[in-house]
Amino acid sequence: MAAVTSPETSPQPRVYFQTPAEEPETPVRKQGRVTVKYDRKELRKRLNLEEWIIDQLTDLYDCEEEAIPELEIDVDELLDMPSDVERAARVKDLLVDCFKPTEDFISELLDKIRGMQKLSTPQKK
């Protein structure tokens, strides 16, 4: 038979557990939310273009991706330019340190971006 003891007469100290403070719940985002704001096909085109650019730059500079000189070919900036002549001049300026011929790369790049849409940040509703 178990003896009933009161907290004052108990020989062992009692242990109390605190419940953890409740953390504020962060809203869970559903996957694919970005593709709701942007066109999925345009995102795929842009990703393919960026991978192609990296491959071409590694060939042009004869190095691994990590060793490519710090340069950024901003596709949206190129799309904002009014003509292919200006786009070609901009890319040529970016590739000034490249010792290999860049004309083929530039013409292919311009062909690939022709008809692409600028990926601007959508306005919040």
TrEMBL record:
Region Disordered, annotated ranges: 1-29
* Stored SUPFAM superfamilies: Myosin phosphatase inhibitor 17kDa protein, CPI-17 (SSF81790)
Tell me which GO cellular component terms the UniProt record holds: cytoplasm
InterPro entries hit by this protein: CPI-17, CPI-17_sf
MF terms from GO for this chain are: protein serine/threonine phosphatase inhibitor activity
Keyword Coiled coil in annotation: no
State the protein's name: Protein phosphatase 1, regulatory (inhibitor) subunit 14Ba
Query: What family is this protein classified in?
Result: Belongs to the PP1 inhibitor family.
The scientific name of the source species is Cynoglossus semilaevis (Tongue sole)
Sorted alphabetically, which keywords does the UniProt record give? Acetylation, Phosphoprotein, Protein phosphatase inhibitor
